[in-house]
Design goal:
mainly alpha; 4-stranded mixed β-sheet; 15 helices; 4% strand
Length: 425
């Protein structure tokens, strides 16, 4: 190996090791932060037994995630050092499928290997940890069908996008990065529009919410907020988990309001209305638009950086590839970008938490009941055993929402502000 080849190989392994070390340290710090006493603001919902269960639940997940991360690092490092990627590259080239077909088969093999690696951990999470703490309601049949559907969708949708990326770079070289960006952006927007009508129904059953107090409350809030929607649905989330959730899917008039049946069962209409008012706040404050624009800008930057990676021959050879190719460049970029994504994550998570605070404020103002949203958040935290005192570094790296304790405190201040005529942003 030349010096440049060795440099790139060691750089990638070094970045992976640094990312792993950071991940393990943050988990340790977060576990220690979770030993804090039960915050008095949530003592009306949590008792000490439930609070201790939460610690045990998060500790079990953290241990499994650490084992998975360590094994994944060892597996990838072994692939790089042993030249296994180069061996796989030579194997698929021998099929004589041409550059696009060869790239598709190469990534299909890597994808199947990654799925096989993660499957035991997914089984342990679902049928081990989640079942032990009373959350899992997924049957083995549903689990297997979800896995199969996911693989098929990945092959069809991911394969179509990958074909376009390979074809554009093969035809025009690195200068095609802006066309690749256009293809990726168009694909993401198309999937966002398709998701509520074609994709989500493959996994969940959507049933129109029957007429009643809850539906009337939601429609009244949506009308007051001038929030366009196509329908209000109950979703059979209880087939997979006892945890509750609510979401909007789609854009504009095609938006669907979806409520998990577990949410409907456990929360009074006032709390559900407050949760949905929060989601409406994201639309009314244009968070979806800003998030989409940020995603498009990030994707453009990634495509440009990818185009540079395609031209670094020693980088591809450092991974074991005997000759450069578009799929080798994509593989190298994926390995390099993963640690770098931590920096982007700091920014995007901070922005997301800011948006969540604004949506909380909107919900409090729209409903006039900040306490209803606070009550819903506390109940959701109890039912899902959420961390009440996460470490600040864990929040910065991984939290797209502010910790529940912070949100409850802000909502309490909003409640006092509304009563006094002040306004809390």
């Amino acid at each position: 190996m030349g010096e440049a080849v060795v440099f790139w190989l060691l750089l990638i392994i070094g970045l992976m090791a640094a990312e792993l070390a950071l991940e393990l340290v943050v988990r340790l710090l977060d576990q220690r932060a979770g030993l804090a006493p039960l915050p008095p603001e949530l003592a009306d919902v949590f008792d000490q037994e439930r609070y201790q269960q939460g610690r045990a639940y998060r500790r079990a997940h953290a241990r499994l995630a650490s084992v998975e991360s360590l094994l994944a690092f060892c597996a990838i490092a072994a692939l790089l050092v042993s030249g296994a990627l180069g061996w796989l590259d030579g194997l698929v080239r021998a099929l004589g499928l041409g550059p696009i077909g060869t790239g598709l088969v190469f990534f299909a093999a890597l994808g199947l290997a990654a799925a096989a690696f993660s499957l035991p951990f997914s089984i342990q999470r679902t049928f081990g940890i989640e079942a032990r703490f009373g959350f899992n309601s997924t049957s083995p049949k549903t689990f297997a069908l979800d896995l199969l559907k996911g693989l098929i969708l990945s092959a069809l949708l991911g394969g179509a996008l990958l074909t376009a990326v390979l074809a554009l770079f093969e035809a025009m070289g690195p200068s095609a990065w802006w066309l690749v960006w256009a293809a990726v952006a168009g694909f993401e927007l198309l999937v966002a529009f398709m998701s509520p009508v074609l994709l989500m129904p493959l996994f969940y059953k959507f049933v129109p919410l029957p007429d009643g107090e809850l539906r009337r409350r939601i429609e009244a809030l949506a009308d007051e907020a001038a929030f366009r929607r196509r329908g209000i649905y109950s979703v059979d989330g209880s087939r997979r988990s006892t945890k509750a959730n609510a979401f909007f899917a789609g854009f504009g008039a095609s938006r669907r309001i979806a409520l998990f049946d577990t949410l409907i069962e456990r929360h009074p209409p006032a709390e559900i209305g407050a949760v949905l008012a929060h989601e409406m706040g994201h639309a009314k404050r244009r968070h979806v638009l800003w998030g989409t624009l940020l995603s498009l800008a990030t994707t453009a930057g990634m495509c440009w950086l990818l185009s540079l990676t395609l031209e670094i021959d020693p980088l591809q050879r450092g991974l074991g590839f005997a000759q450069p190719s578009v799929w080798a460049g994509l593989t190298a970029f994926g390995l390099l970008f993963s640690p770098a994504s931590l920096v982007l994550g700091l920014f995007s998570n901070a922005l997301s938490r800011r948006f969540e605070r604004q949506a909380d404020a909107y919900a409090a103002e729209l409903t006039g009941q900040p306490s209803a949203l606070a009550a819903a958040l506390k109940r959701l935290a109890k039912d899902s055993l959420s961390s009440l005192t996460p470490h600040p570094l864990k929040v910065a790296l991984d939290y797209s929402h502010p910790p529940v304790l912070e949100r409850v405190r802000r909502l309490s201040a909003m409640d006092e502000g509304l009563q006094s005529g002040a306004r809390v942003e």
